[in-house]
Amino acid sequence: MKRPVAYIAGTGHAVPRRVVTNDDIAAMGLDTNDAWIVERTGIRQRHLAAPDETLTSLAAQASRQAMEQAGVLPGEIDVIVLGTASPDHLLPATAVEVQAALGCSRAAAFDLGAACSGWLYSAIVAESLIAGGSADTVLVIGAEKLSSIVNWKDRNTCVLFGDGAGATVLRRARGGHRGILSSYMRSDGALTQLLWRPAGGNVEPLSPEVMAEGRHCIQMAGREVFKHAVRSMAEATDRALDAARLTANDIDLLIPHQANVRIIDATAKHAGIPPERVFVNVDRYGNTSAATIPIALNEAIQQGRVKEGSTVLFAAFGAGFTWGSLVVRF
Q1: Known catalytic residue: 104?
Q2: I want to staple 82 with a disulfide (CB 3.0 to 4.6 A). Which of 86, 141, 148, 162 is the partner?
Q3: Are 116 and 226 within one domain?
Q4: Other C-beta atoms lying within 10 Å of the C-beta of residue 298
């Protein structure tokens, strides 16, 4: 097992004020109901952003919490990495807008596009920057405003997603065994069209026809995505545990990507981790993509389920396809 070069020094999260229940969505005229959604996903409600709640504002709010917890001032942040699939603008990166909002004037800032694996990929990049000597303190954010890219006429996707942001501060480890013990990430671009936004980019720019057909919104082949998610997250947990030279018995808490309670259950079962050592909040937030894991981590810390000495396994899967895992000792 390698000696950690980076540890998580602080966490925070922020979600929009508005809570939308399954009954609220059914009232929009969609052919769905609370029982149908809960049975298939485990989701009961989600937070949806108002026009004045931007990705930048949510990410900045979560980041301030993480920085305060870590005891880090804006001028101490060397790099900001923001994982997102729903940036405020196509140009520039939302990370630089977060940088300005926080006053991190000496930091480099950039977005990372790995969909639901965005925070996890960003944390691995941050660890690499620290290991390579390019940074000592990195702000790692996962944030989404998915309500802006969801087709609210498609019951198979719109019921799944929510908005929110989670942030973590990674700092250089100064000896000991606290920090990232192992990491793993993979992708498979051959399966892009199973979960994607077909239009809105350079290949098929926005047009009245694209907007009318909803081709700029998220489209998903649900059954196929489910199958690949279960398989890939199982692989990711195996790889991370092997690299850390640990077993399921060494894991105090599994924090998986919060997309669907059935995927979470399957991942935990494969890893051999009992339900009482699995963190689940998908019922209250839905799938916030890159934000799910850092939101869940901050809640787990607040609830006392992650504390000093805890060993936590993270696993994620997202569009691309992308997937990966981390083992972290706190």
Answers
A1: no
A2: 141
A3: no
A4: 23
Are 286 and 150 contained in the same domain? no
Residue 137: C-alpha distances to residues 76, 141, 236 (Å): 7, 13, 26
* Bridge partners of residue 85, in order along the sequence: none
Closest CA to 220 of 317, 96, 123, 77: 317
Q: What is the mean pLDDT of each run of 10 residues along the chain (330 residues)?
A: 86 98 92 92 97 97 98 98 97 98 97 97 98 97 97 91 98 90 96 90 91 89 91 94 96 97 95 96 98 98 96 96 97
- Whether 1 is covered by a domain: the verdict is no
Spatial contact of 188 and 317, defined as CB atoms under 8 Å apart: no
* Catalytic (active site) residue 47: no
Q: In this structure, are residues 183 and 322 in contact, taking their beta carbons and an 8 Å threshold?
A: no
Residue 188 contacts residue 320 (beta carbons within 8 Å): yes
Using alpha carbons only, what angle is made at residue 184 by residues 179 and 188, rounded to the nearest 5 degrees? 150
Phi, psi of 313 (to 5 degrees): -105, 125
Which of 47, 104, 228, 287 is flagged as catalytic? 287
Single-letter code of the amino acid located at 76: E
Question: Which pTM was predicted?
Answer: 0.96
Of 47, 104, 116, 260, the catalytic one is: 116
Token pair listed for 300? 């787990």
